[in-house]
Design brief:
It comes from Methylobacterium brachiatum. By secondary structure, this protein is an alpha/beta fold.
Length: 347
């Protein structure tokens, strides 16, 4: 299959990100700017609507940051890595697996917690004739490249001891997947919501959700990420952004139905699948994220569950050939900007 520019392979996207590294690695001139604000902040978000993006609707981020904001959607983490490497994004929230892959390729980014943890928002949906996981062999399965769904599909293959060579993986973005499903070009897909709503509505069968993989040691979440040079130059802006993200999630917790309706109107998405997608993520508070069940408050907390999950994800990506063994250091705590997290959310 010829891969068009809109659907690069998983490794191809990561290679593009690494290739653009030279333009990004230089820190901003003059170091931190006390009291200053950038003229523009570029925020990336998944094309699948997310609760924190409700702040785009009413200008909450512009008001909190005190500057102009531009929003850039991306279909999966692979493209987010490419945009960060090219210096086209300052801040974003996307999946844990592509973030670890980006770190493995030397991308100078920092992790800022995990405001979203995946449970039922990502699903493996197949044709109704497929009734069990073993039947994936010999089938055409679409998945967005360099995404948590791609990593989850790898996990499904391993857990169920499937032959990966017997599954024809098609690296399609999620809108393209819907079109391929309609044409009959694919037999199934590991896909994010609300896109799976179209497939289930047309007779698709749900085989599993990503939360089903957690008992097997596979945990998927979405992290906030900042370009290292942006964090060095504009730390107060990053702190304000983190607080604003949490404020939008508080809005969602207070009114999940109303938030979902507003996002459905803004994105032109069907309400019920979008509502169920948002409900398929858990939203730990900032204090919870910095507590012992998530990241802890210091990089020295090597036993913190999500630091361990980062290492586990890196090991898995090495085994599946996504990244090289020498690309990831033994300790991943230094890639988490605990300083900004603690300043944004003091104990």
């Amino acid at each position: 299959m010829t891969r068009g520019r809109a659907n690069p392979s998983r490794r191809g996207v990561l290679a593009l990100g690494a290739g653009a590294l030279g333009t990004l690695a230089r820190p901003g001139r003059g170091g931190a700017q006390p009291g200053g604000k950038p003229a523009l902040v570029r925020i990336g978000h998944l094309t699948a609507p997310r609760a924190w993006v409700i702040g785009r609707h009413d200008g909450a981020f512009e008001a909190a940051l005190g500057t102009r904001v531009e929003w850039f959607p991306f279909p999966s983490g692979g493209l987010a890595l490419q945009m960060l490497a090219a210096g086209r994004l300052d801040l974003a929230i996307f999946g844990s697996a592509p973030i670890v892959a980006g770190l493995g390729r030397g991308l100078p980014i920092q992790i800022l917690g995990s405001p979203e943890v995946v449970a039922t928002s990502e699903r493996l949906v197949v044709r109704p004739a497929i009734t069990e996981i073993k039947q994936l062999e010999g089938k055409r399965i679409a998945v967005a490249p360099s995404s948590t769904m791609a990593c989850a599909l790898d996990a499904v293959i391993r857990i169920n001891r499937l032959d990966p060579a017997a599954i024809k993986r098609l690296p399609l973005g999620q809108p393209e997947t819907i079109a391929a499903w309609t044409r009959g070009d694919i037999d199934g897909t590991y896909i994010n919501g609300p896109f799976w709503g179209d497939l289930l509505g047309s007779g698709g069968r749900q085989l599993l959700v990503s939360g089903d993989l957690r008992p097997h040691g596979f945990l998927f979440w979405n992290s906030a990420v900042v370009r290292m040079d942006f964090a060095q130059r504009w730390p107060e802006t990053v702190i304000a952004w983190l607080r604003t993200v949490q404020a939008q999630l508080d809005r969602y917790r207070a009114d999940p139905e109303g938030t979902a309706r507003t996002l459905a109107e803004d994105f032109g998405a069907p309400f019920e699948p979008l509502r169920d997608t948002l409900a398929g993520l858990s939203y730990p508070t900032a204090q919870e994220q910095l507590g012992p069940k998530y990241w802890g408050r210091t990089a020295k907390a090597n036993t913190a569950p999500f630091l361990k999950a980062l290492s586990d994800t890196a090991d898995f990506l090495i085994e599946t050939g996504e990244i090289k063994r020498g690309g990831i250091p033994a300790a991943l705590g230094p890639f988490v900007n605990y300083d900004l997290l603690n300043r944004a959310f003091p104990a």
